[in-house]
């Protein structure tokens, strides 16, 4: 059994850390699910990029997009931010 200290910290048992691949410096997501605390290691950046690329590929061709005049302002800002990021990455 693990105890919570006065600052709210816990120590994950070594065997659990090893099974989950949690090493010093690993970022974790802590959230509540159905009244329980869930600790999950954040995915590696490469995994996030792979997932994003897969999702982008599944959304269809750029020609399927509505003209910017026909979308909500928040969608327009998001699309413009994505376009800026793509241009910066291609440099």
From TrEMBL:
Family annotation (InterPro entries): SpoVT-AbrB_dom, SpoVT-AbrB_sf
PROSITE patterns: SPOVT_ABRB
SUPFAM superfamilies: AbrB/MazE/MraZ-like
UniProt KW keywords: DNA-binding
Domain SpoVT-AbrB, residue spans: 1-44
Keyword DNA-binding: yes
Region (Disordered): 57-91
GO molecular function terms noted in the UniProt entry: DNA binding
Basic and acidic residues bias (residue ranges): 80-91
Entry protein name: AbrB/MazE/SpoVT family DNA-binding domain-containing protein
Organism: Natranaeroarchaeum aerophilus
